[in-house]
Design brief:
It is built from 14 helices and 10 strands. The chain has 321 residues and is an alpha/beta fold. It folds into 2 domains: 188 residues, Class I glutamine amidotransferase (GATase) domain (Rossmann fold, 3-Layer(aba) Sandwich); 102 residues, Homeodomain-like (Arc Repressor Mutant, subunit A, Orthogonal Bundle), CATH 1.10.10.60. The protein has a 6-stranded mixed β-sheet with strand order 2-1-5-6-10-9, with helices on both faces. The chain has a two-stranded antiparallel ribbon with strand order 3-4. It has a two-stranded parallel ribbon with strand order 7-8. Helix 11 crosses helix 12. The longest helix is centred in the last third of the chain and has 19 residues. The radius of gyration is 22 Å and the shape is globular.
Length: 321
């Protein structure tokens, strides 16, 4: 019997995502020529799904087919992103919990993580979602250990970042189910790398200040414009007219990370901007972004992104730029 994959679509689904699981999983054969996977898409009540592309998808199945699934994938979209504990469809909540209790593998792509979090399936777990929605997600689901800067997380329940990262996660599932060789075969069929050169990193934009006049926001805005100079936590706390302890607590509440980690992330983001937009040498970029030397920049880049600054520039600033 093939491995049964059931994708759950909600109103406002992205058109690409409706067909993506079938595109990845179907057509992979065993040594006898039999299909390794079967993929079906359902919706609550089997209702037609309005997509963000302006057409309606008519589905054949309701949530009852989840009962026979080996893997359940919650697809992203505006309906998924709107999910909150108080408003989640009771039938959908029950179906997901019953599937989890049976040992069914539970997966989300992009903002599908909002549905899993609203159902309580991510409480206390590591998870990720599309980085542009990370602040919204963190505010709605503080019990989830959100990791907004990775492509996917496998922590019992599996979550991925944006749409393309859903492909990475599906290839990971194939490798787990049937071995790396089949995962590589699936990647070749999709004309994509089985593992990205950048490792598990979402390339997040630099932080931008909110226009709200908050003291901490003002300090962060100032720090983001002075990354090339010394930025100690004590100096930032004094600039915010707070004790270092209060500043650190407020900082983590507002950003979800520590001041030191935020400064490093901002400096790496600034280095990426310079790699993409200038012809500066690596040592010059390291100084301008506050990372000191080219050696330190390379080490931080490898640790954070799994590739060198030169490799990053080759991808994001082609020779013709």
């Amino acid at each position: 019997m093939p491995h049964e994959v059931v994708a759950i679509a909600l109103p406002g689904a992205h058109a690409m995502d409706l067909g993506m699981p079938a595109q990845v999983f179907e057509g992979l054969l065993d040594e006898h020529g039999a299909e390794r996977y079967r993929v079906r898409v359902c919706s609550p009540g089997g209702a037609p799904i309005e997509t963000t592309a302006g057409f309606t998808a008519v589905l054949e199945h309701g949530l009852s087919i989840v009962d026979g699934a080996d893997t359940v994938i919650v697809l992203p979209g505006t309906g998924a992103r709107a999910a909150r504990a108080a408003s989640l469809d009771p039938e959908l909540r029950e179906v997901l919990h019953a599937a989890r209790a049976r040992g069914t593998r539970i997966v989300s792509i992009c903002t599908g993580a909002f549905v899993l979090a609203a159902a309580g399936l991510l409480d206390g777990r590591r998870a990720t979602t599309y980085w542009r929605r990370s602040d919204e997600f963190r505010a709605a689901f503080p019990a989830v250990r959100l990791e907004p800067d990775v492509l996917y997380v496998d922590d019992g329940v599996l979550t991925s970042a944006g749409v393309a990262a859903g492909l990475d996660l599906c290839l990971h599932l194939i490798s787990v189910d049937f071995g790396v060789a089949l995962g590589n075969e699936a990647a070749r069929r999709l004309v994509m790398a089985p593992r990205r050169a950048g490792g598990q990193a979402q390339f997040i934009e630099r932080w931008r200040p909110a226009d709200d006049g908050d003291r901490l926001t003002g300090v962060l805005a100032w720090a983001s414009e002075h990354l090339g100079g010394p930025l100690s936590v004590d100096a930032l706390a004094r600039r915010a007219a707070m004790s270092e302890r209060t500043f650190t607590r407020r900082f983590r509440e507002q950003t979800g990370t520590s001041p030191t980690a935020w400064i490093t992330a901002e400096r790496l983001a600034r280095a990426r901007e310079l790699l993409e937009g200038t012809d500066l040498y690596i040592d010059e970029i390291a100084r301008a972004s506050g990372l000191g030397s080219g050696t330190h920049l390379r080490a931080q880049f490898h640790r954070r992104f799994g590739q060198s600054p030169t490799e990053y520039r080759r991808v994001f600033r082609p020779a013709s730029a």
